[in-house]
Amino acid sequence: MIGMLNIQRSADEGVAFFLSGRIEIDDVPELERLLSLEASGEALVLDLGNVTLISRDAVKFLTRCEEDGIKLKSCPAYIREWIDAEKGPNGPRT
What we know:
- The protein is α/β, with parallel strands linked by helices.
- The protein has one domain (6-36, 44-87): STAS domain (Transcription Regulator spoIIAA).
- The protein is 34% helix and 30% strand.
- It has three helices and four strands.
- It has a four-stranded mixed β-sheet with strand order 1-2-3-4, with helices on one face.
- Helix 1 (28-36) links the parallel strand 2 and strand 3 (44-54).
- The longest helix has 12 residues, at 56-67.
- It is globular, with a radius of gyration of 13 Å.
C-alpha cells in the first residue's frame, strides 16, 4: 500500500529502526510501543533516510525521542528544521 510506514529493525551495535514512507499520527503509538519493548539502556537509533512525509504529531514524537536520548540518523533537512523549530530557543513547544 502506497503511503504506508514501513519499519525494519536491526540489532547490530545497539538497536536501529529503519523507517520508510510516511509517518502519520496513527503510526506514533506503534513506534512508541516498539521502542518501549527494547531493553533499558540499549542504544536506540531511528533511521529516517527513507521518510517521505511526516505529520506534525510525528515531529513532536521525534522531538521527544531525541530528548530521551534516541539518535535520529539520516534525518532529512526539512524534518531536522521542523524538529529544531519545535524545540525552539527554550525547549519544546507545548
